[in-house]
Amino acid sequence: MAEQKQVVALEIGAQGVVMGVFVSTGKQGMALSRYARKDIVLDPVEEGLRIEYVSAAIGELVGELKLKNNSVRSVVSGQQVFIRFIKLPPIESDDLRRLVGFEAQQHIPFPMEEIVWDFQLLPDRGEAEREAILVAIKTETLDALNDQITAHGIHNTGVGCSITSLYNAFRYNYPDETAPVMILDIGAKTTDIIYTEPERFYTRSVTVGGAFITNAIARDLHCSFKDAEEIKVQQGMVSMANGHTEGMSPVEAQVSTTVRNAMTRLASEIQRTTNHYRAQFKGNAPTKAYICGGGALLRYTREFLEETIGIPVEHMNPLANVPVSKHVDQNNLATDSVILGGIVGAAVEACSDAEISIDLVPTSVGKDRAEKQLLPKIAIAGSIAVLGAAIFAGAAYMKKTETAATRIKVAAAVKKAERIGSEISAAENKITDCERTIQKYTNLYNMRFAYMDILQDMTQNTASPNFWISSFVPLVNFNPLDTDLASKNGIKEAALVRDRFDSGNDTALQTVKQDKNNKNSKIAQNVTAICIEGYVLDKSITGSTTGDTVRDNIRQTLGSQSPESPFTFVVKKNTNDKKGVMLEDRMYLSIEDSTQAKLPPYVEKFTMIIPLKHPIPVPAK
Fold first, then answer.
1. Which end is more exposed in the chain, N or C (fewer Cβ atoms within 10 Å of the end residue's Cβ)?
2. pTM of the entire predicted model
3. Are 20 and 53 part of one and the same domain?
4. Which candidate, 130, 123, 76, 61, places its Cα nearest to that of 100?
5. Which SUPFAM superfamilies match (predicted)?
6. Which residues span the domain enclosing 255?
7. Residue among 525, 534, 535, 549 at smallest CA distance from 474
8. Same structural domain for residues 281 and 229?
């Protein structure tokens, strides 16, 4: 065995944190020395406290594995990053990263200075354009996670993406798998669908995961999220044979039926993604599926997916080619192996040449790397300074006339250098101005896609036979937490959905109106919310109250924690508010019964105002 090198890997998921210690065994091999995991189960209303729970879990794992003062390679879940596949023009470029950066501006819905990104060229298939995978994350999100890691006495060397790390783990453990296959990582918030075949890689995340199933159980059993999670873990299963529940207790029958309905939606998303992959990326239909993640532990998940997607399904073993220390509990490992793909992939990236290597660098890590790169330059500069001092000392022995002549030449050279420096500074200022202008035009160009993305997100995530949307209206400067905008800076009325404070009963909808006659208004005009109106079937038809039908189908999908969702129901009071306030139903939803709306008795009208995560500027005329 070669000299051992320790690699510590950490994966931060939506409902859990996993940390493992691997040792290098030479020839790009490695072995699992030890690992530990901590679950984080939070009710959706507690999402603002997630970072504190993550920090506590990391601290417990560091203590349990005795890893203080060690370096760690961390991995973030797919729901926290943006993944795009971009086409690069067929031109030679010495600065490939700058070329990819220009393309990234067209695909990432944030200014480039607010994100950290990396890319990987995909295998060349001989086509006119070269394809690359682009992975980006908000800088504030990455730095916040890095702070929680370093707060417990460990040094973060870099951050990867769980999707690409899982792919690397699969390739490491299944090197002979050359047929088109699919990897399904069923996580808490999302399911990551990965397609792999020779010279091809594609992935897409869908918002159907363990939390989606837990919410469905909580709704059907009328219990809390945490109670529903416990019921799912202890009694949950997917009913087979078209909902067969004979021999089950009433609770088990209800839970298994609820789980099957939720899993049916996942199967539909898988089929839709496969069709998209084949049509848009010219991929082949997968011949086998490998499942992993916490959702894969649900009983009969493998059998259900095999039945619904029509191909063989098996559990992925991320330790197939990774020896395991005898000190690792084999009973726990038998259950936990399906959730270790992320840390195995991170270790593969550290110990060998991974097929896809993504390196998202937190601000503090970038500074450390820059300082290390600067040390050789400082040494060279010191040597030059010493040499210059020696030359100067030698010049002291020269004749006065020779010394004067040398000084004149040096002065002339200095003036010339200063002149050139001034010209360079002026040119740099011009370049900076040009870059600012380009950024303005780029932002304006990107605005063309803002409403298209919003409409597409709503179309994909709000389809339901129980209600339909009839109106879509952008709202300017909407703030559900501001109750007194009547006299501020020329904005006469605010966009508010509030209870009538004098009665505390019904909901009042106030329309946004801008004071067009006040030209001195200093408020920037931004679309900050979308008002939708529509109609929902009465509870006599749907079996649930109309408010629940609209709230559950729209809020839980459009208001997800996925960074790709443009909507949110957590509103910050100000820029210093890190957690935000979870909006109550009455703040954004109004139901008007059929009598008030003069509609048939089986239909009621609803109005909902959905805040946007990121305002859309209104161009000045």
1. C
2. 0.63
3. yes
4. 130
5. Actin-like ATPase domain
6. 176-317
7. 525
8. yes
